Amino acid sequence: MSYNLLKSQREFLEIPHQNQLDVAVYQGGFGSGKTFSGSLLGILLCLKFAGIRGLVGAQTYTLVRDTTLQSYLEHLEHFNLKEGEDYFWISSLQKLVFKNGSEILFRTFEEPNKLKSLNLGFVEIEEMSDVPYSTFKMLLGRMRQSINPKWKNFRYRIFGHTNPEIRKGWIYKTFIENKKENYRFISAPTTQNIYLPDGFCEEMKKLYDDEYYRIFVLAQNGEYDKGLVVKDFSNENIKNIKYQPDMDLHITCDFNVDPMAWILAHKTEDKVFFFDEIVLENTTTAKTCDEFFSRYPNHKGKIIINGDASGDNRSCTSEYTNYVIIKKKLQSFGFEDIEIKIKPFNPPIKNRIIAFNSMIHSANGERRLFVDKKCEKLLYNIYNLRYQEGSSKIDLPSYTQIKSSKELKFLMHPFDAASYLVEFYWAISL
After folding, report:
1. Three-class SS state of 263
2. Residue pair 352/415 in contact by the 8 Å Cβ criterion
3. Which of 60-74, 114-128, 172-186, 188-202 has the highest mean pLDDT?
């Protein structure tokens, strides 16, 4: 099996310096071959240096299992390597073992202290920008596996791949601003991948707003709208939206005692219209249902319930999940056509932010998300949610700040509720 690699992929695999340690990050847009390149390098190292020990990880194990591991298995298949003969997958240890003695551990970086005893020849980091700088520094200290005399031209290698950072974080500072000789930064715009389907990048331009297109397709770092989480929202996104009793009514939920935030919407195939919100303090799911019924007692269309996947878990105070409580309560009011549509688990917040912003204003100028002025708390979030200085984390108020300014308690929850619905129907894969 042979691959015709892109220029950026070949640059990522090859080492242009003589240092004993090579540290490289492959920063690319969607579809630029990031994970493909990382897993290919990991397999090549295992085949070339018999007995090498590698570690492959990400901030969450779900990402390791569903993305990185699958890419490794695809490469092994393409190389005509057979499980049980050329390699072995030990599920109980989450370890890939080759017949030449090389092995790769697949781990989460959520608890980095559990990795401190490892002696490694290489490390691969999936979605590097999600991993704290402190974890990266700890992994540098794991590059201490004994070098086999038979390993010709061996170098310790730490390599990662990532989408560009929304704000200039530790990757930018480490690999661009304060770059060392043996630290390599490879930029790979999606537009350079000649193997993508025709029209792929043009389709991305329809989906993303201008800034996201520049960052996640052209692979450029950026300062995202002076720290605002929601960008390019304008008066064009504010509409007088009339409730339609015969249309499907979506209730999208963020479950929190104080406040509980439900946003109500109608949607078409490509647009969403948020026409009302129910944001209550010190309440319960059942009481919020009562408030909904008091406003819309004669709704005739279907009621579709979206929202927070964690609301599908039983709480210690109820034998029912929040969604079952809602369905049973609405049925007791006489509503018959009720459907629950939620994901099995919540997507990362950045996925929801990208989907939300792309609906607000795509790179080709379309606006497909509209909010009525009645949604005061949702609009408050749109205008005020910000990132922490120099970070991609959302700047949430402390308990002391909330005590001083009660309005701050309404930050995040209404946005969460609305973005769950948007990401459910118009998800953008990262």
Report:
1. strand
2. no
3. 114-128
Residue 316 has pLDDT above 60, yes or no: no
- pTM (whole model) above 0.85: no
Q: What is the secondary structure of 186-233 as a DSSP string?
A: EEE-GGG-TTSPTTHHHHHHHHS-HHHHHHHTS------GGGBSS-S-
The Cα diameter of the chain in Å comes to: 79
State which CATH number among 3.40.50.300, 1.10.760.10, 1.10.3210.10, 3.40.190.10 fits the domain covering 7-197.
Answer: 3.40.50.300
* The pairing of beta strand 183-188 with beta strand 249-254: unpaired
Closest Cα to residue 163, out of 202, 109, 204?
204
H helix intervals, 217-318: 285-295
Q: Where are the alpha helices (DSSP H) in 235-375?
A: 285-295, 322-332, 349-360
Using alpha carbons, select from 315, 324, 316, 320 the residue that is nearest to residue 253.
324
Residue where the block lists tokens 């998800």: 427
- The SS3 call for residue 362 is coil
Q: Which CATH architecture has domain 235-425?
A: 2-Layer Sandwich (3.30)
Which tokens in the block code for residue 143? 């590059």
Which residues lie closer than 8 Å to 24 by C-beta, 6 or more apart?
A: 12, 157, 158, 159, 160, 183, 184, 185, 186
Please tell me the distance from the alpha carbon of residue 382 to that of residue 256, in angstroms, as a whole number: 19
Q: Give, to the nearest 10 degrees, the angle between helix 34-48 and helix 69-78.
A: 60
How far is the C-alpha of 228 from the C-alpha of 384, rounded, in Å?
Answer: 7
Over the stretch 214-256, which tens digit does the pLDDT of each residue have? Answer: 777 887 765 544 678 998 898 899 999 999 999 999 999 999 8
pLDDT in tens, 270-285: 999 999 999 999 999 9
Structural element, H or E, at residue 55: strand 53-58
Nearest alpha-carbon partner for 228 in 389, 422, 352: 389
Which residues in the chain are classed under CATH 3.40.50.300?
A: 7-197
pLDDT of residue 225: 47
Q: What is the spatial distance between Cα 132 and Cα 389, in angstroms, rounded to a whole number?
A: 15
